[in-house]
Amino acid sequence: MPILEVKNLKKNFGKLEVLKDISFSLEKGEVLAIIGSSGSGKSTLLRTLNFLEKADGGCIIVNGECLYDCGKQQKSDEAELRKKRLHFGLVFQQFNLFPQYNTLQNITLALNLQSKEKLRKAFFGEDKRSFFQKLGDLPKTIAKYRAALRAEYAGNTDKAKQLIERVGLGDKTYSYPFELSGGQQQRVAIARALALEPDVLCFDEPTSALDPELTGEVLKVIKDLKKYNSTMIVVTHEMEFARDVADRIIFMYDGKIEEEGTPDEVFGNPKSERTKQFIAKY
Amino acid sequence: MNFGQVTLQLLEGFGTTVLVFALTLAMALPLGLIVAFGSMTKFKPLRWLTRTIVWIIRGTPLMLQVIVVFYVPGLLFGVNFTTRFTAVIIAFVINYACYFSEIYRGGIESISKGQYEAGQVLGMTKAQIFFKIVLFQVVKRIMAPVSNEVITLVKDTALARVIAVEELISASNDIMAGFGIIYPLFYAGVFYLIFCGILTVMFNFIEKKLDYYR
What interface predicted TM-score (ipTM) does this complex get? Predict the structure, then answer.
């Protein structure tokens, strides 16, 4: 069963059709590179998958679970939406790190909030005893909750530190984003997305905002993730990288998938005239 | 009237000045945030209502507002304020909340969309995004305009005397009128100066504290 299936996805901005009938599927551990000129709908596709934009048609299926189906009436419940979003991770072109938090805090913030939510529910949520019984041992419950929370936070910190090591920033654990180079910031952003263990990790032109000499370090980190069997979708203009790392390539043109295949097929022997023209430019 | 007596009388007025200042600040700062949300809401009627109120409050003199708050309820409904002081506080809080709301709004709107989106893809709720990510950045950005407004408030408290609330300026004025000496008025100026000096030092300290990131 594919980890991700996208069927007939459509998205309009007013009268402008940005995505026209996009369908593809992705197996676990597969890396998909999406190439194409600006305005072809690549970024919108990623944003739609991450529910930053609401699709106007089609469906998104992750692990056999239908996350979005335009045919059915969807509840736009915020809690549901948040759960769906967690199947995907997104690394932005502009990193979007939180400037007031250091590397470690950037990564643990969402984890800690989730821990808190989970424990609050466990300790105070589904308690069927009477109000007075609850009130009686409230101090005890609070003490237990605090201890559990501390343990969770410590676990989150360990996890974050491992990720920081994995992206090669062990010496920048307590640095703030403004103290880091663009490449380092993007690596923090990657670690931040990884911390939530998404089923599919999406990269929206992760190196486009970087100086050429910094793109290498970011691409290397993404390449390394393949070893960990991460499923990834990378929107990129780095053809070399796409060819090197991706298992499959999608070339998008005007909101449609113009060509799809292995790197050798798409780069070596493109069928479509438009693909040929596009690749010839690189 | 000797210097000691003048000082004591001015201190009494200064007490009221500080009280008006502190109460206004304590209530207008949070209320301003609510007004800011009102002026940014997607619900249009509420947004226009809020913006109209802000326009009226910012577009008319505070002195006039103090008078309106104090006299109009009595004229229209026959209910009078039990104390003049309460009327002053209400007028000041409304006025300053509106000014603060515009500062907040500017600050909130200056935060890039990317910060919200980063929070969203990390599965955070709207409230978490606002309180854990956005608010802190807003506070840093609005510190300078807020300190400006706070220092203006120190001196605006003098308007309380328009409905005969005995604050610093009216205290010095009373001495002037009663004893024919003019220096208490300048002496009152020194009080304001020192008060604002302390506030300036405090704001510089806070700004420095917030300077750990850019």
Answer: 0.90
